[in-house]
Amino acid sequence: MKGRTDVIVGVQWGDEGKGRVVDALAGKSGVIARYQGGANAGHTVVVEDEKFVFHLLPSGILYPDKICLIGNGVVIDPETLFAELDDLKDRGKILARLVVSNAAHIVMPYHKQIDKLSEGARSEGRKIGTTGRGIGPCYSDKFDRIGIRAEDLVNPEILKEKLIINIEQKNKILTRVYDAEPLDLEDIYKTALEWGKRMKPLLGDTFLEIHNALASGKNVLFEGAQGTLLDIDHGTYPFVTSSSPCSGGACTGAGIGAGKIDRVIGVTKAYCTRVGEGPFPTEDHGLIGETLRTRGGEFGATTGRPRRCGWNDLVAVDYAVKINGIDGLALTKLDVLSGFEKIQVCTSYDIEGTIHKEFPSSCAELAKAVPLFEELPGWKEDIGKCRSFEELPAQAQDYIRFIEERVSAPVVLIGVGQGREDTILRGI
Ligand code: GDP
Ligand code: IMO
Ligand code: MG
User: Fold this and answer.
1) Model's pTM, two decimal places?
2) By the number of CB atoms within 10 A of the CB, which of 74, 175, 176, 420 ranks highest?
């Protein structure tokens, strides 16, 4: 007996609706694991009109009979984690069993401070528009091999040793580079020890949980944060996050062999959004963008920033299908397109007079891309109550078939509203 493994990845620049897709599929899984990113994520789940936004907790946390894991590849801000747990407790929810990897890195107060200071110091045009959650500085320390891991919070001596090194270094950066006040070692040490006390019962070997679950026939769902185009390697560098949201990130960020991944599901909106800076070929600065933003409620789940909006970009979706090995697409927010007379879909770029069908690896080239659209007829009907593909208006079905054909991947899940039940499953 062996369970199945599915990786849920964002196809675009994040906020595709990964949380709601994980929530929809979690019922058939035993374990739900986050594998990268941190509290920069904001994953929305709506159950019976009650809305939840998860930054660190896996989106399966509302299922009491499941195990939720925060894998080694995640960077954890303990204050956000505890606040999320407290909020759910206050709301009377019974939660999944949560295990946090000993090897996950901790976002320290100085990471958040340096994130904001370094973003503030960038000149116009060079700003990334980070979430300010300390993600880049925390991953920098991880790769510099000086980071604080979750296990260190419960080992006072190692913690002190590591903090001495870190705070000496950070104080030089803060005072000499940014002209800011130095940090107090004892303050931070005390705070970190308090975090450790609360974290201790949650810590464990998350990769073992995964392998034991699979051996006992339970399915495992790996929940990506951010999206393919924000990937540190495959995204629109430098306008990316500092981790590996792509499906390969699940292998390193949770501890599963590449050959043991059965299925990769890419989540894409029926249109496209981006929050933060960087190139976005189909961005619409006019009425279409404004309409998508208003109808789709396109405001960041983490920072509240208005999201940049535009038509769907199948050059980018096709790229994500290839980079992640996507077996099936989850197409969310199809209901938001109801009422548009015509729907435009970008199927190639014009870059300085040359037609490109493939997503360029150079961000500078992408910035010059002019989207070339194909036009499809829209539909007027409200599709919120549709529960099968056949119930959708013919034009909506045609739009889905068009995507499937152009990117060579089947659409296996369709979102027609925010709620758990507003989902059409197609052979998944
Ligand atoms: P994530 O970060 O990928 O989990 O996505 P977010 O939660 O940041 O943003 C997605 C937003 O779209 C949330 O407000 C969801 O409730 C909402 N949403 C997801 N799927 C659908 C859908 O099919 N229809 C509508 N109308 N809203 C959706
Ligand atoms: P979910 O998981 C959308 C963006 C930020 C910024 C860039 C780098 O909810 O889809 P960071 O704080 O990571 O250093 O910021 O990445 N970004 C996201 N955009 N959804 C997210 O997460 C994001 N997480 C980071 O806006 O442009
Ligand atoms: Mg989000």
Assistant:
1) 0.97
2) 74
